[in-house]
Specification:
Layout: H1 4-25, H2 32-45, E1 49-53, H3 56-66, E2 74-78, H4 83-91, E3 95-99, H5 110-116, E4 121-127, H6 136-145, E5 149-153, E6 161-162, E7 165-166, E8 173-177, E9 191-195, H7 198-207, E10 212-214, E11 217-218, H8 229-239, H9 242-260, E12 274-275, E13 281-284, H10 288-297, H11 327-335, E14 336-339, H12 349-363
Parallel strand pairs: 2-3, 2-4, 4-5, 5-8
Antiparallel strand pairs: 1-9, 6-7, 6-12, 8-9, 10-11, 13-14
Helix pairs in contact: 1-8, 2-8, 3-4, 3-7, 9-12
Bound molecules: pyridoxal-5'-phosphate.
């Protein structure tokens, strides 16, 4: 699903140089590389503040702490997302309220969001899943009418745009991940929050460092959510080819769209006002496990993101959701399959994968599903 070795070879010398410079400086926390990364990404997406933190998960935790979410608050969010989106809400003592998704985009269904608002609701968290933004105009309208904070989980969506506006600028605060598999993948853990408001940005900056307002004086309790200088220096090198890599992802996706159009699988729906960056290219098929096993036997890795909705996870069982609570999410978990779409794919790789999918449908009859798909972190 990824070719990190191949990618590394493209940057090897520059990365070693950047790492060397940090080693020579002996400054491992803070410093110019962090400030430059924050400034560069801020300018790229068009917001006022960026705060680099220790992971995408910690970006969510800092964002929600900064908004003051906690015990007694309800937070509306999708169940069809990576665990961290909900885990962060739970860790702050707030209650995750899971709602269903649009079956075509895999993102929050605004109608379900509206229906879930109660007097206890304090925030909505959208996840721009697989690199496509949620329907922000409708969801922001709900947030404004009910005076709710809006958090974007943009972990998978750096570079995505919605009506021309960048993911990361569409709510009160946005969270990005530099996990190695992400579109801007780092060398280890890392993340960032994007904020328009000066006060919220200043709060998140202090939360990143134990809530310290000045040396050894603490106005609030934060944590050690600091990012590493060396990782920032590496990301600055990788950023140089980010646009090109996004273009390649989009080219792979449109090739799949073309080649799979008249097959029994459903290809991703991307509306005209969306500029998707294809963190994953995810198809839907009733024969998901069988197809995944068939592809794996022929040397093609696939992924299942995600096999179980968060509302049905054991750790959230006390929230009272049951099988059938979120039917679109549950059906999607049974049918979704992500195909390799990363920027290091060869020009003809999508053609090969697509012809294997055609071959599968031409040569097999409905059979008992077998396990076969990789379940990794995305
Ligand atoms: C949608 C989503 N949210 C949050 C995260 C958490 O990011 P991290 O792994 O950097 O903590 C990820 C990635 O893993 C993700 O895909």
């Amino acid at each position: 699903m990824l070719d990190l070795h191949g990618e590394y070879q493209l940057f090897r010398d520059q990365i070693r140089e950047a790492v060397d410079a940090v080693l020579e400086s002996q400054r491992f926390i803070g410093g110019p590389a962090i400030a430059e990364l924050e400034q560069t990404l801020c300018e790229r997406i068009g917001t006022n503040h960026a705060v680099a933190v220790s992971s995408g998960t910690d970006a969510l935790v800092c964002a929600m702490m900064g908004l003051g979410l906690g015990a007694g608050d309800e937070v509306i969010l999708p169940s069809f997302t990576f665990f961290a989106t909900a885990g962060s809400v739970w860790r702050l003592g707030a209650r995750p309220v899971f709602v269903d998704i649009d079956p075509r985009t895999f993102n929050l269904d605004p109608k379900c969001v509206e229906a879930a608002v109660t007097p206890k609701t304090k925030a909505i968290v959208v996840a721009h899943l697989f690199g496509q933004c949620a329907e922000m105009d409708e969801i922001n309208d709900i947030a404004q009418r009910h005076n709710l904070a809006m958090v974007e989980d943009a972990a998978q969506a750096l570079g995505a745009r919605y009506h021309g506006r960048s993911a990361g600028t569409l709510g009160d605060v946005a969270c990005l991940s530099f996990y190695p598999t992400k579109n801007l993948g780092g060398f280890g853990e890392g993340g960032m929050t994007f904020v328009g408001d000066d006060t919220l940005a200043a709060t998140i900056r202090t939360l990143r460092n134990h809530g310290e307002s000045s040396r050894y004086f603490h106005d609030r309790v934060g944590g050690n959510f600091r990012f590493d200088t060396m990782k920032a220096a590496i990301l600055l090198v990788k950023l140089k080819r980010f646009e090109e890599f996004t273009r390649r992802r989009r080219q792979n996706a449109s090739r799949y769209d073309e080649l799979l159009a008249d097959t029994p699988v459903e290809t991703p729906f991307v509306d005209g006002h969306q500029h998707a960056v294809y963190h994953q290219y995810s198809i839907l098929t009733d024969r998901r496990d069988e197809l995944a096993a068939w592809l794996r036997e022929r040397g093609v890795d696939t992924g299942v993101y995600y096999p179980l909705g968060l509302h049905l996870q054991q750790c959230f069982s006390t929230l009272g959701y049951r099988k059938g609570s979120l039917p679109v999410t549950e059906r999607t978990c049974e049918r979704i399959l992500s195909l390799p779409c990363h920027p290091m794919l060869g020009e003809t790789d999508p053609d090969r994968v697509a012809s294997l999918i055609r071959e599968f449908h031409a040569s097999t009859t409905e059979a008992k599903p077998q396990a076969g798909a990789t379940i990794g972190q995305s």
